[in-house]
Amino acid sequence: MGSIEGHALIEEDGRGARWLLNRSPRDGALVERLPLPGESEVRACVDAARRAQVAWGEMPVGDRAQVLAELGRILAKHAELLVQSLVDECGKPPFEALVHEVMVAADFAHYLAKEAPRILAPQTRALRRMPQRKSLISYHPRGVVGVISPWNYPLATGLSEVFSALVAGNAVVLKPSESASSTLLRARELFAASALDPALFQIVLGDGATGNALIDARPDLVVFTGGTETGRKVAAECGARLIPCILELGGKAAGIVASDADIEVAAKRLVWGGFANSGQICVGVERIFAPAAIYPALVSALTKETLALRLGDPSDPSVDVACLTTARQAPRLQALVDDAVARGARLVRPTGAEVDPKANRFPPSLLLDCTPEMRIMREESFGPLLPVMSVRDEEEALSHVNALPQGLAGYVFGKDRARALAIARRMRAGVVVVNDVLLAYGLPEAPFGGIGESGFGRVHGEEGLREMCVVRHVNVERLSLKASPFAFPYGAKKYRFALRALKWLLGS
Fold this sequence. Notes:
The protein is of the alpha/beta class. It has two domains: 223 residues, 3-Layer(aba) Sandwich (Aldehyde Dehydrogenase, Chain A, domain 1), CATH 3.40.605.10; 191 residues, Aldehyde Dehydrogenase, Chain A, domain 2 (3-Layer(aba) Sandwich), CATH 3.40.309.10. Helix content is 39%, strand content 20%. It has a seven-stranded mixed β-sheet, with helices on both faces. β18, α13 and β19 form a beta-alpha-beta unit. α2 packs antiparallel against α4. The chain is globular and about 85 Å long.
């Protein structure tokens, strides 16, 4: 037997074969038993993807876009099947499975199918110092992209990167989390009805060993979404092989509620941002700061919204908050709660809501009157914990927000939009949303990524799509000149001319 990882179990038999036992987060029931590939099988997948990529990469972008549009339509057609898979595998409420996962993935396909031909079109750039020449910029596939996706949003995160890589002309080998593989397998099966060559999108199952094998097979780019510590290891493995990588890592997103904010609106959005998907969101609200003048009113509104949440089985469409996806989350969440309460925080939960290990439930928990020394104000919880802290003003809030090494997402609430925007621009985060939460990842038009210990590189938007490419620069002449002012022979006269030109160009 191997190691338990959330509701998944890696099993080894006496002959060296490894199996993934995917169990339901609701009751531990076995969902499916899947064979895991060895290193040679992972390498064979990468090799097959590389062979298939040659013809795919030579296709016009518009033709690849048509295939991507077809994949988006397939997701929409089979939305309910995928929703049910996400409910069973991840414990998501049906609405979240549909809107946060299936709709997001399908919308990415639609956006990329429409915009990729424009974004990846060759460019011509005039040169301000050399009008006799011009530069041609073009975007070419990298080859094979290795994607390592997380368990909290397996479909949306996994497929958004797969779609970007494919439309850019790459082949993809995806290693999903061992705690959330089934839904992505269902999606790939559905794509068999499309014009996409199956070799262009392959899935290799497993834990960290499979991820290591994927990197060792030397894809041309690795896109990793997951925890910071694992991200460090991925970066090191890629660096040792000189493979470029994009890392989207953990965060500790803060919400700053300005003194002029609409308290009711802020409370509704922040409670959703803290407890959606049971708080298992990298951009989820992990801290709230409010000036002392409005703190009591905000606490009252947050309490009202939290106590109104409907808890229960994820199969019930009326449920707001269901269960955790992985069992390993609960003990760590409880330790964070215990630490905060021991240091003076007040705990607020819906009436009758208790931790239920058998059903893998951890109730939404407001932690009021928090202070900086509490672990919950510094460590990513990745669960349904929402700490609230009173500060003197927005300046003090910013000082707390920017003190941590993570910098993924942030949120600001205020009626004065110019003032709220000024606060947002000073937050140390890769993305900040004003007067709302969570939206950033689901916007295919905009780049997404963090700074500091939240990773580097960007996915999504024009910037993210071009990250999937090799950018080539070809410089050609516009006018034919017999002599070059930069070539041999040198001499004092040419030196003096260059010196005068430098001073003239820079106005000195």
